[in-house]
Amino acid sequence: MTTVHERVDTFHDNDQKPVGYGRMLRKEDPRFLRGRGRYVDDVQLPGMLHLAILRSPVAHARIVSIDTSAAEASPGVKAVVTGAMLAQQNLAWMPTLSNDVQAVLATDKVRFQGQEVAFVVAEDRYAARDALELIDVEYDVLDPVIDARRALESDAPLIRDDLDGKTNNHCFDWETGDEAATEAVFARADVVVSQDLVYPRVHPAPMETCGAVADYDAVDGKLRLWSTTQAPHAHRTLYAIVAGLPEHKIQVISPDIGGGFGNKVPIYPGYVCAIVASIVTGKPVKWMEDRSENLISTGFARDYIMRGEIAATRDGRILGIRTNVLADHGAFNGTAAPVKYPAGFFGVFTGSYDIEAAYCKMTAVYTNKAPGGVAYACSFRITEAVYLVERIVDCLADELGMDPAELRLKNFIQPEQFPYTTKTGWVYDSGNYEPTMRLAMEMAGYDELRREQAEKRARGELMGIGIAFFTEAVGAGPRKDMDILGLGMADGCELRVHPTGKAVVRLSVQSQGQGHETTFAQIVAEEIGIPPADIEVLHGDTDNTPFGLGTYGSRSTPVSGAAAALVARKVRDKARIIASGMLEVSVADLEWERGAFHVAGDPGRSVTIQDIALRAHGAGDLPEGIEGGLEAQICYNPSNLTYPHGAYICVVDIDPGTAQVTVRRFIAVDDCGTRINPMIIEGQVHGGLTDGVGMALMEMIAFDEDGNCLGASLMDYLIPTSLEVPDWETGFTVTPSPHHPIGAKGVGESATVGSPPAIVNAVIDALKPFGVRHADMPLTPSRVWDAMRGQARPPI
Amino acid sequence: MQVTMTVNDVEVTREIEARLLLVHFLRDVLGLTGTHWGCDTSNCGTCVVWLDGEPVKSCTVLAAMAGGHQVRTVEGLAKGAELDPVQQGFMQCHGLQCGFCTPGMMMTARALLDRNPDPSETEIREAISGQICRCTGYATIVRSVRWAAVAEAQAAAQVTETTESSEAGEIDNAGQPAEAVA
């Protein structure tokens, strides 16, 4: 079924022979298969206590009083801590990743349902939970702000009265593009289409919830913290800043992580509470949230109310795109994005099209909902951007009476235009869109599908075909433009080759299931010729890995993958000098092939990388000026993001009697540049497509008017199971990144970004006989039913 | 209260609180951390173990209810050094990523194959539909279970000295082109 393009190698250096890339089974699998994975909740330390958090039952209230006396007297309880007690140590508030502040434990008010109010430390989980029931909190309930549209009304209740001089719920304004130039192209356009779109609040909901084990040793002043973090080094630095502990005395260990998807980027109050609890009690303390806590209090995603406008000529030439966004950031701006990008990378909303002008104006507000904002495999808000552009392009196709594939093909940025600077200032590194689109159409049998659809329509059956074409921007930095709270978005890598020719590579990024232990071994193997099986990959321990910003925004391969390739080349350069001494020839006379240097013109005279490793550590002399050992370390600062792209086609059937949408087929053609392990890439794509089905058809974190979270369990927040998704059809093209050392681009979030508009476009296409032009996600049966009756309403 | 049960063929007796959940008994008391805790509401299935050979969600079973019964967890799936075909299939077909849902998925898959050695894709999807995987998109899990079914059929065929040439091709199609494996 899958059609593939031949791999195109564009390595800088032709002496590199691929021994590392290709389908390889995962090195990390055996421990997981035997139940020997080591997740945070698996950590058991002698004398360990358990922490549970009391959370606010209401969305907005002033705290009148908290009585902890009964809880303190409860069996097994070791400590009960409130916000007032933290305030005495100046720990009641902490900085968010967006330069806002967030309460660790509420002192003055609670600002969302589920906010942390107090914690109990007890001998076991059950005793801690029992004691929570005995804490008596008196709340003076205030009117909440739940609808972002209401937040800036003059009589809206003020949420952030903790901020000096704050008189309204405004969070930030942001704009990009050229307003006047965009206005000009809209004024002369033959056709202008406008559409209101809501991207509802959703939640990453990794199967493992968030948690930590804090172990503070008062004698040596060392804090060891096992935690569910995608960014252990950044967290260590922030703990040093927040808690005032010296950074060299903090060890953050991120062991096996049961899925992240962005949910495990922020620092949550629970982590800080666990640290405080260990310091207070002198014992190791475990905090592990339950599923409801995860869904109601940790990093959500999306929550954008958008108006998209597109201007075009009558013959389908897109001239401009304009959008106005109202962004709901919840009670605290906990967005995890580079500081100069408060809207993440939403600026790529011009998509894959060569247009004349674009403009976006955004207003972000506070509401009485959980904080967060960037999460769920979104590549820093590119999910929202791609949804916007791919929906309004479909709306334009509908208006023009053009086939949506034809409209896209007509407007693509052409291969010779790369590197291409968009009208919002993003420099797309490489792309060749038409072959990717054509391959997806060929795999889908696009023309045949349209014929089938016409026949079914004639019979009153509802079948839809949806297309989305995306360009992503992944692999943040460069550091001059991108930082998280002043920490530049670069990543380190260290490679040591042991005397017997085995190696260990240490990464600053952290896998949450992406298979780093395999992929990074393959990258190093490709460069240095040591088999992947002989390369140990270490990550997720700040005492034992170099500094770097971690894994999110699909940045592991673009940033850390580059670091791994370059550090291996650095080691190889040293190995070449040692080899020249061993073979008694000049460096220039050596040729590199398959893990060995041989004398040019005399292949019989050669030394392997293993021979060289032994010599590097051995008793003999080394060439003058060369130190012993065979190792290197670098910190890689990317010169640009990488820009993967893809073409997705979705086929849906809708039951006219129940309005149930079935995704019959989904064809995904991805181009992520050089492919390291096709099996792992396919797995990443499959997972993202499933996320897309969830968001498009099922998932939404909804609230009632009082601010009660209506998606507080997996009975209420619906995630796709094996029955809601088809057998995925994947293909690929290869357009290497010109600036990445091995030509690779990120792929971890491509499918999450690209699939929701393909599915929604397919559903709207199916509903054409009803005159439906748009209906918002999630397209549940009841919402589709309403749309079929001309009553489509936004979900918020 | 005191509870006695057989876990992975070993009889264990422990003093427990009556309200202790089986998942916490296995993890916190016995240290069998391969069984995970994911949702509390029987939706996610990361806690699936066998109770007398039937998959159950151990987050909604009291440890006391398992008293006198046979429990099997993921730690009891392999036969010593030899992985169960289901475990092999998950590795061969990339049926896992973060690994958190994997033990529960494999326990359900093993139970399915025990009662239906040749399940269709639809039957596999139905069998695992009470469990959530956030990483794989399920297709590779389905392939993994099919791999195990075919592998077991081949092994049985070899034992009875019958031919199995037609089945060999299916393993390749199930995601395992041998020549591509490094």
TrEMBL record, chain A:
SUPFAM superfamilies: CO dehydrogenase molybdoprotein N-domain-like, Molybdenum cofactor-binding domain. The keyword Disulfide bond does not apply. Gene3D superfamilies: Aldehyde oxidase/xanthine dehydrogenase, a/b hammerhead, Aldehyde oxidase/xanthine dehydrogenase, molybdopterin binding domain. It holds the Pfam family MoCoBD_1. The keyword Iron does not apply. Residues 34-143 form the Aldehyde oxidase/xanthine dehydrogenase a/b hammerhead domain. InterPro entries: Ald_Oxase/Xan_DH_a/b, Ald_Oxase/Xan_DH_a/b_sf, Ald_Oxase/xanthine_DH-like, AldOxase/xan_DH_MoCoBD1, AldOxase/xan_DH_MoCoBD2, AldOxase/xan_DH_Mopterin-bd_sf, CO_Mo_DH_lsu. Transmembrane segments: none annotated. NCBIfam families: CO_dehy_Mo_lg. PANTHER family: ALDEHYDE OXIDASE 1-RELATED, XANTHINE DEHYDROGENASE. This is Carbon-monoxide dehydrogenase (Acceptor).
From TrEMBL, chain B:
Residues 1-77 form the 2Fe-2S ferredoxin-type domain. Keywords: 2Fe-2S, Iron, Iron-sulfur, Metal-binding, Oxidoreductase. Signal peptide: none annotated. InterPro entries: 2Fe-2S-bd, 2Fe-2S-bd_dom_sf, 2Fe-2S_ferredoxin-like_sf, 2Fe-2S_ferredoxin-type, Beta-grasp_dom_sf, Diverse_Oxidoreductases. The keyword Transcription regulation does not apply. It comes from the Bacteria. Residues 160-182 are annotated as: Disordered. This is Xanthine dehydrogenase YagT iron-sulfur-binding subunit.
